[in-house]
Specification:
about 30% helix; Immunoglobulin-like; about 475 residues; alpha/beta; TIM Barrel
Length: about 475
């Protein structure tokens, strides 16, 4: 009996150690199985483009950029000027106006504003071909109740600096920069920076109301737009409170803005649809422009910001955003410095930090490909769960931007592509396949059969191509 017990204990001990050895393998296999079964539920793509569909203007909503407070004036944009020019950016958003860029001093009741640093930054933005987009934040220390995220001691001081800032940049009088079509946004992420609410002592509606009073007091200016609330996400209670108060008080509200960080591209369009549902109760504001003034795949450091996953996410997301928002600001232009001195550390920039030579990352090249699409868009049918595309046409040449986005970096797919309704007289197409970095990697001739041309293309995980179909007689 004693020997039997010893053998039993040895067997139990052996089984225990065997389980410990095999456990990592079992976990790995289980993860693979989950990935497989989840993947099996997805829909493969089969892209079809009718080349004679009525084209529509291609929205350039994604050709806007934002910069936070990590890299500050006076000269960070100068080395990037030519590369940003290539993106045809319409607006570059800045926050930290009143605590970093504009020097505000108060002596007795007199307030002075020194715009020198912000003027330098605005001139750099203009040199890229873009206009500035101003987030009116944060509270200047001389005016704040406590820190820079707090309300002012006196709302009249806040109104004064907002009015003077708008007059300085939108003003048409001598001394004003006379910039048309500017946007001003009331604060940046008030739910995070200052723990503002839509009630109580730190009531964002008070902040917006006072900002609106200042904006409407600005004298001799070009038309400009004021909006908010620029919260960290799309929060219906915030949006509805702002719409309701605007409808009751008729204050200036020209756009609605929020931020969104999500690895799921469809979330960006869902937010916009949620706004449309809310605005039904406030019909006067139903057509307000919808602006996502910061967006990306994650609000935290993530390796995808430095690699091809981030590029595929950007294009797949812009596929959603161009149908649902007027402006969507990619966050951000340039990384701050890594505490460990690393050039790539999962930061949000489309360029590495100044000390890391300001190198463009894959997301920069994704924006560059987007900018190469012609102006008129064609509908595409047959997109799948992973593969998304944007088609455009110019002088019968069809351009098709395709990406295979998978946040798990595991899904591959062969995608059938068909152009239909080919005009009479076109017997073949030359297909140029261009990679993410703008290099033509293959060219081939495709015959037209029964007024259509077909091909197929293999996509590795998070691979992106721009295809150009050029008709030949």
């Amino acid at each position: 009996m004693e020997n039997f017990i010893k053998v039993l204990k040895l067997r139990q001990l052996f089984s225990f150690y065997l389980l410990l050895i095999l456990l990592p393998l079992l976990v790995f296999l289980a993860q693979k199985a989950v990935t497989y079964f989840i993947g099996a539920l997805g829909e493969p793509a089969n892209l079809i483009i009718d080349v004679q569909s009525p084209p529509t203007p291609l929205s350039r909503s994604c050709q806007t950029l934002a910069q936070g407070g990590e890299v500050l004036p006076p000269n960070y944009l100068t080395p990037l000027q030519n590369q940003i020019k290539l993106l045809s950016v319409s607006y570059i958003r800045l926050d930290h106006l009143f605590d970093k860029y504009i020097t505000v001093t108060k002596t007795g009741d007199a307030i002075t504003l020194d715009f020198t640093l912000l003027d330098q930054q605005v001139k750099q933005i203009l040199a890229t071909g873009a206009l500035p987009f101003f987030s009116l934040s944060y509270m200047p220390p001389p005016l704040a109740q406590s820190d820079i995220t707090s309300p002012p001691k006196n709302w009249s001081d806040w109104r004064f600096i907002v009015q003077k800032t708008i007059e300085h940049y939108s003003g048409t009088f001598q001394g004003g920069m006379s910039l048309p079509n500017l946007y001003y946004e009331a604060w940046n992420e008030p739910d995070l920076f200052g723990n503002w609410k839509t009630y109580g002592n730190r009531n964002y509606l008070d902040l917006y109301r006072q900002t609106s009073l200042a904006a409407t007091s600005a004298k001799v200016t070009h038309d400009f737009k004021l909006g908010g609330p620029a919260t960290t996400g799309f929060y219906p209670a915030w949006i509805e409170s702002l719409l309701k108060t605007a409808s009751q008080e008729n204050f200036k509200l020209d756009f609605i803005s929020w931020h969104r960080y999500s690895p799921n591209p469809s979330d960006f369009q869902k937010d916009s649809l949620s706004f449309a549902d809310l605005a039904i109760k406030y019909p006067a504001y139903g057509s307000l422009p919808r602006l996502i003034t910061e967006w990306g795949s994650s609000g935290e450091n993530h390796s995808s910001f430095d690699n091809f996953i981030g590029a595929a996410h950007l294009i797949s997301s812009c596929r959603e955003l161009i149908d649902s928002t007027e402006l969507a600001f990619t966050f951000e232009i340039q990384d701050g410095e890594s505490p460990e001195g690393k050039p790539y550390w999962g930061r949000w920039g489309i360029f590495t930090s100044p000390n890391s030579r300001s190198l463009p990352k894959p997301r920069y090249f994704a924006l560059l490909l987007l900018n190469q699409l012609p102006q008129f868009r064609l509908p595409v049918s047959g997109e799948g769960s992973w593969v998304k595309s944007i088609a455009t046409i110019e002088a019968q040449q069809v351009s098709l931007l395709i990406t295979n986005y998978d946040s798990h970096n595991s899904h591959s797919e062969t995608v059938p592509i068909t152009l239909t309704n080919i005009p009479p007289g076109v017997s073949q197409y030359t297909l140029s396949q261009i990679d993410l970095f703008g290099k033509i990697i293959t060219e081939k001739t495709l015959p037209v059969t029964n007024r259509q041309v077909t091909t197929s293309l293999f996509f590795s995980p998070n691979q992106t191509f721009l295809l150009r179909f050029t008709p030949n007689p």
